[in-house]
Automatic annotation (TrEMBL):
InterPro entries the UniProt entry points to: NRAMP_fam
Membrane topology (UniProt): Multi-pass membrane protein
Protein name per its UniProtKB record: Divalent metal cation transporter
Chief location category: membrane
């Protein structure tokens, strides 16, 4: 009896660790080099009104993630498998879009890791990128790769949040003004909202946490309360990081200090805390990049695991190959700007497509069985699909001429 109780306790503790790990994997996957730059630039443009953008994007993020994670958990299937059941071949299309997007953005993540080590330790960016890639590869060589990934995501996420809160405190931002403008903004930017939502839950990030839970065996209707809580936790972690950076930048801007357009987030940290602040930025940039490298590689490969038994059997080695290709591309040719622009526009389209597929799947008995998806989630999810679909298509159309000009 005592042994049974002990076994249940160990299992419950392990489940909690996986749930928190999935939340941090999703959160840290979205907190990459682009996240830091976007937040800084939009705060410069909108000042205190950027608080409203963060609020709206968080609401849209939560709706998207709760819907997707619940359907993955209740069906016990990965995103591409669900899509193929909704319409044969749709899963293959979704997988192709996510793998291409994940690979292209991982080149940016590798570059960010190199720049992070450069700022933190003065290491050459290319050498820093290679060292960082080796660190990420070691996680997947390790026998308990899933547990290692969860732990790295949690530690890196915690360090980033603490350092960001410290810098926000140092800049003494006008918090009262930020709160007022979060509810009643002087200016609204829909472009900023769609960019934030796409960056927080677009592309592979939509499925990062849900697939992690599935691989850890957390699925079925009985797990839905924990799955829902984990998905919301992931978004809230992202939100805390975004708010802390927003306040740090707002503090710098409100003092009339000039942010260097060549590297906006690094400039904020340097203005806030001098050379130590710049080193701290390097640590945050590296932590953000390394967790995004791991998240992008893991989730992208999870979309092709079911396509062939060999990929399923050797999926950790396929993930390692994914990281090696990203790093080699950056080391040899740098960041391919045109590819990143095109894939950025495609990534914005993936969220409404993937969320739309999940909402259709939520009402198919052959996929979810006896499960009844809450009506409020279906309605709010459909609203997010329409809003993000319209805005992302417009963004995509605007980006095409830039790529071929």
């Amino acid at each position: 009896m005592e042994q049974e109780k002990k076994g249940k306790f160990v299992k419950k503790t392990a489940s909690k660790s996986v749930l928190m790990g999935a939340a941090f994997l999703m959160a840290t996957s979205s907190i990459g080099p682009g996240f830091l730059t976007q937040t800084t630039v939009f705060t410069q443009q909108l000042a205190a009104s950027f608080g409203f953008v963060i609020l709206i994007s968080l609401i849209l993020d939560i709706v998207a993630q709760v819907n997707v994670w619940r359907i993955i958990a209740v069906s016990g299937l990965r995103g591409q498998e669900i899509a193929n059941k909704v319409l044969p071949g749709l899963g293959v299309l979704l997988a192709i879009l996510i793998v291409i997007g994940g690979l292209a953005f991982n080149i940016g993540n590798v570059a960010g890791a190199g720049l992070g080590l450069n700022a933190m330790l003065g290491v050459d960016p290319i050498m820093g990128a290679i060292v960082s890639a080796l660190f990420a590869i070691f996680i997947f060589i390790y026998k308990e790769a899933g547990k290692a990934m969860d732990k790295v995501a949690q530690i890196a996420g915690g360090v980033m949040i603490l350092l960001m809160l410290f810098v926000a405190f140092k800049t003494s931002p006008p918090v009262g003004e930020a709160i007022v403008n979060t509810v009643w903004p002087k200016e609204i930017s829909w472009f900023a909202i769609v960019t934030l939502v796409g960056g927080s839950v677009g592309g592979y990030i939509t499925f990062a946490g849900g697939h992690r839970l599935l691989d850890a065996g957390i699925k079925g209707q009985e797990s839905l309360p924990e799955v829902t809580k984990s998905s919301v936790t992931g978004i809230l972690i992202t939100g805390v990081m975004r708010i802390a950076l927003f306040l740090a930048v707002l503090g710098v801007v409100s003092k009339g200090l000039v942010i260097d357009p060549a590297n906006p987030p690094a400039s904020v940290f340097q203005l806030a805390a001098g050379n130590i602040g710049y080193r701290m930025f390097g640590m945050i940039m590296w932590a953000a990049a390394i967790t995004s490298i791991v998240g992008a590689a893991y989730t992208s490969v999870s979309f092709i695991r079911s396509f062939h038994p060999s990929i399923e059997k050797y999926h950790n080695w396929v993930i390692i190959a994914f990281i090696v290709i990203s790093t080699t591309t950056f080391a040899l040719v740098g960041k391919p700007v045109n590819v990143l622009i095109l894939v950025g526009a495609l990534n914005a389209l993936i969220l409404p497509l993937s969320l739309g597929i999940m909402l259709v799947a939520a009402h198919k008995k052959e996929i979810v069985g006896t499960y009844k998806h809450p009506r409020w989630l279906t309605v709010t999810g459909a609203i997010v699909v329409v809003i993000m679909g319209y805005l992302s298509i417009n963004t995509f159309i605007e980006e095409i001429p830039k790529i071929f000009s």
